[in-house]
Every structure is written in C-alpha cells, then in structure tokens.
Amino acid sequence: MNNNNYLTLEYIFITSISIAVSALACIYGIAYYFVSDGFTLLEVSSLPLISLLVVFTISSICLFLALKRYHDIINKIKNVPYILGTVAITGIFIFIIDIFMYAFIDKTLSSQYIQQLEVVYKQYGKSAKDVNNLKSLPFILQNWILIFISLVCGSFSSLILLKIYKRTKAKSELMTA
Asked: Residue 137: which region, alpha, beta or left (left: phi > 0; alpha: psi -120 to 50)?
C-alpha cells in the first residue's frame, strides 16, 4: 500500500466515526426524550422514521463535507469505493457503539421501546410474538434495516451533493473569470 491508501483509510475511519457518533447521539437523544415521560403511540410509531431521517441527513452531510475536503488532499480519490468503505465502517461503528450502550450503560431504553411496541401490536389485534424476539436486542439493532438503508441512501446522496457543488463552483469561477 502506498501512502495515499493509508491516508484514504484514515479519512474513511474519521468520517465513519463522525457519522456514527453524531447519528447515535441524535437518535439516543430523541429516544431518551420520548421515554422520559413514557413512550406514546405516536412516538413509538414515528421513532423508526425519525431515526431514518437522522441517519440519512447526517450521513449525507458528513460524507459530502468529507468528500469535498479530502478530494482536494488526496489526488483522484475514487468516490464510490470511499463511500462503500465509509458505509461499511460506519455500520460497524454504529452497531459496536449500540451494543456497548446496551451492555454497559442502559438496557431500559430497548425494553421500554419493545414494551410499548407490544401494546401497539395488541391494540391492532396482531400477535406480539415477533416483537418478543426483539427484547434481547440493543435499541439500534431493533431497527437495523431502516438504519442501514438510510445510511446507504444518505451516503450516495452525498455524491449528488458533491456534483451539484462542483457544478455551482465551476459556474461561479466562469462568471468571475
């Protein structure tokens, strides 16, 4: 590996850590706010959607800023491998942090969320059997499909933001020239 590959890996780790910590801080902050007075039906049903929007927004903004900054530092960074590496490492960091939170800090958020979800299932006459299987999982892992989808979509939307930024920058440079 040459020096640029090591720098690329370093930037992938920096970007991944910033996305994972920022997203989880927002999601946990919102979830703890909801649980402070007890989960309501609206809060339980909207929390996965809120998590999706938070991860999408944070991943697209952080990755856009990273691509914008690091593209100038490292010559000819390949955007798609950079994004795929960042998505994989971010996913790993999110799950490690979530498991750490569940194992060492607080198991109540996960169980309170599932308890309220069981109430929702029972109100609509559905079997809560599938929900009982989620009781032993950490909070973010209970919604891992939505989190991962929003991470992937947010990351690739950063490429769109980068293209728009480059076009706008090129137009402004042409106008000033």
From this structure: beta
Residue 141 DSSP one-character state: G
Instruction: State CA 9 to chain mean position distance.
Output: 19
Q: Mean of the pLDDT values across residues 147-152?
A: 90
Check: CB of residue 62 under 8 Å from CB of residue 18.
Answer: yes
Assign 3-class secondary structure to 34-80.
Answer: HHHCCCCHHHHHHHHHHHHHHHHHHHHHHHHHHHHHHHHHCCCCCHH
Cβ–Cβ < 8 Å for 154, 63: yes
Rounded to a whole number of angstroms, the distance between the first and last alpha carbons of the chain is 40
Between CA 24 and CA 28 the distance in angstroms is: 6
Of 22, 92, 90, 63, nearest to 162 (Cα)? 63
Tokens representing residue 135 in the block: 């009781």
Give the DSSP letter of residue 107: S
In which band, very low, low, confident or very high, does the pLDDT at 5 lie, cut at 50, 70 and 90? low
Percent of the chain with pLDDT over 70: 86
pLDDT tier at 75, thresholds 50, 70, 90: very low
DSSP class of residue 148 equals: H
